[in-house]
C-alpha cells in the first residue's frame, strides 16, 4: 500500500480539528540544481528547528520546514494530511504555493504530469494534490464500507482555472475565456460559467489534472524548462449528506478545497530591473504586488476597519477572497532556494510568509442541519404569505 493509503486508516468523518490554527506557513527549500564548486554560490539557509528557518543572520518562525532532502511524501504528510482532516470536518481549506520562479511550487503542488499516471515509474514524484485525492477517496470509501448504517454519502466536483493577464480562463474548457466573478451571500465567491466536473475516483482526478495542466499557459513539454506565467487554481467542493434515522435527511456539510499554484516573479523582477517587460510580465508583477498589498493590509488592520478592502483590484485577490482572510483554513507553502543568486527573492518570500501568518481567517464548519432546513422552509412560507398579502 502507498503512504497515502496507509494514512487512510481514520474514517472519513474525522473529529473536527478544532485546535488547528486558521493560517499556517510552511517553508520548503528546494535542492540546488548545480552543485557549487567552492560553496560560493550557496547562501545560508538552515532549518534551525522544526518550526524555524534561518537565512543569513535572520530567523523566521514558521509552522513547519521541509528542507532540501524532504520528499514529496514528506510534503504530503506536512501539508496534505491536515488539509484532508479539515475538509472532512466541514471547513473550507486552501493550500497556496508562493515563491520565486523555479523554486519548486509546481513540483510540490502537482509533481510531473507523468507521475500522475497511477502505474508510472516516477510515482514517488507525485505532488501533494494527487496524493490528497488518493487519500481522500480511500477514506470516503472506507467510511461507507465500515459504517453503512450512518448513510453518509459524498459528492465531489472540481473546477480548474487560470488567471492570466487579468483574465480568468477555464482550464477544463479552454474556449471559455475571461470569465466573470460573482459574489453572493450564500455561496461566497463564484466564477460564472466555470466548468464543474463530478469526480469519484483517483482516475477521474488524474485525468482532470492532466487535462487542466496541459491547457495552462505554458505547455507540458516546456513546463520543466520555462516556468508558467499564470496563476492556477484547482477547486474541489465536497458535499456530505448524513441521513437521519426517521425522515431521511439530517445534515449536510459542504467544504471547498482550493489549491493555488502561483506564478512567481523572475529573479530580475525582484532585483528591480525593469527592462523589456512583456505585457504578461507586467500583469503578473501587478497581480503579485496586489496580493502582497492586500496581505499587508489584512495583517495590519484591526477587525473593525475591514470594510472596503481592495479585493477587487485584481482577479487573483478577488477570486481568492475566502482564502485571504475569510472563511477558510489556509496553508501557505513558501518555496525558496538556498542559492546565493536567489537571496533577495528568498527573503521577500519569507517576509510574505511572516505577514500571511497574521491573516485574520475565520473558518466555520459549513453545515446545514435538518432544523436549519425546517427553519428556512418556515421562513420561505412566511415570506410567500406576506408577498401574497402585499400584492
Ligand atoms: P516553480 O513552479 O516554482 O517555478 P518548478 O516546480 O517548475 O518551479 O521547479 C523548477 C524545476 O525544479 C523543475 O524541473 C522541478 O522538477 C525541479 N524541482 C523543484 N523542486 C524540486 C524538488 N524538491 N526535488 C526535485 N526537483 C525539484
Ligand atoms: Mg510553477
Automatic annotation (TrEMBL):
<protein>
    <recommendedName>
        <fullName>Kinesin motor domain-containing protein</fullName>
    </recommendedName>
</protein>
<comment type="similarity">
    <text>Belongs to the TRAFAC class myosin-kinesin ATPase superfamily. Kinesin family. KIN-12 subfamily.</text>
</comment>
<feature type="binding site">
    <location>
        <begin position="99"/>
        <end position="106"/>
    </location>
    <ligand>
        <name>ATP</name>
    </ligand>
</feature>
<feature type="domain" description="Kinesin motor">
    <location>
        <begin position="22"/>
        <end position="359"/>
    </location>
</feature>
<feature type="compositionally biased region" description="Low complexity">
    <location>
        <begin position="9"/>
        <end position="21"/>
    </location>
</feature>
Amino acid at each position: 500500500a502507498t503512504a497515502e493509503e496507509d494514512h487512510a486508516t481514520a474514517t472519513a468523518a474525522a473529529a473536527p480539528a478544532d485546535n488547528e490554527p486558521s493560517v499556517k506557513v510552511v517553508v520548503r527549500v528546494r535542492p540546488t540544481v548545480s552543485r557549487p564548486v567552492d560553496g560560493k554560490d550557496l547562501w545560508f539557509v538552515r532549518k534551525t528547528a522544526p518550526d524555524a528557518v534561518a537565512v543569513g543572520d535572520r530567523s523566521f518562525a514558521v509552522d513547519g520546514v521541509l528542507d532540501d532532502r524532504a520528499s514529496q511524501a514528506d510534503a504530503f504528510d506536512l501539508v496534505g494530511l491536515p488539509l484532508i482532516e479539515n475538509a472532512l470536518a466541514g471547513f473550507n481549506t486552501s493550500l497556496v504555493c508562493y515563491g520565486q520562479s523555479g523554486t519548486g511550487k509546481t513540483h510540490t503542488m502537482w509533481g510531473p504530469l507523468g507521475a500522475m499516471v497511477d502505474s508510472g515509474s516516477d510515482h514517488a514524484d507525485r505532488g501533494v494534490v494527487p496524493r490528497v485525492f488518493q487519500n481522500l477517496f480511500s477514506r470516503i470509501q472506507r467510511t461507507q464500507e465500515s459504517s453503512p448504517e450512518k448513510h453518509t454519502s459524498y459528492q465531489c466536483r472540481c473546477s480548474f482555472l487560470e488567471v492570466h493577464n487579468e483574465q480568468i480562463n477555464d482550464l477544463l474548457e479552454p474556449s471559455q475565456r475571461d470569465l466573470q466573478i460573482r459574489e453572493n451571500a450564500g455561496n461566497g465567491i463564484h466564477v460564472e460559467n466555470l466548468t464543474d466536473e463530478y469526480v469519484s475516483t483517483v482516475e477521474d482526478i488524474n485525468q482532470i489534472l492532466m487535462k487542466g495542466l496541459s491547457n495552462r499557459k505554458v505547455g507540458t513539454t516546456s513546463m520543466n524548462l520555462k516556468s508558467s506565467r499564470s496563476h492556477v487554481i484547482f477547486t474541489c467542493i465536497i458535499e456530505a449528506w448524513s441521513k437521519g434515522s426517521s425522515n431521511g435527511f439530517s445534515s449536510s456539510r459542504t467544504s471547498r478545497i482550493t489549491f493555488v499554484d502561483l506564478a512567481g516573479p523572475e529573479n530580475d523582477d525582484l532585483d528591480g530591473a525593469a527592462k523589456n517587460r512583456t505585457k504578461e510580465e507586467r500583469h503578473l508583477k501587478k497581480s503579485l504586488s496586489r496580493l502582497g498589498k492586500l496581505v499587508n493590509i489584512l495583517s495590519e488592520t484591526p477587525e473593525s476597519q475591514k470594510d472596503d478592502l481592495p479585493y477587487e483590484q485584481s482577479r487573483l485577490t478577488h477570486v481568492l477572497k475566502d482564502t485571504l482572510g475569510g472563511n477558510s483554513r489556509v496553508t501557505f507553502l513558501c518555496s525558496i532556494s538556498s542559492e546565493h543568486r536567489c537571496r533577495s527573492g528568498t527573503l521577500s518570500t519569507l517576509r510574505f510568509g511572516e505577514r500571511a501568518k497574521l491573516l485574520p481567517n475565520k473558518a466555520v464548519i459549513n453545515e446545514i442541519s435538518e432544523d436549519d432546513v425546517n427553519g428556512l422552509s418556515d421562513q420561505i412560507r412566511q415570506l410567500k404569505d406576506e408577498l401574497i398579502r402585499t400584492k
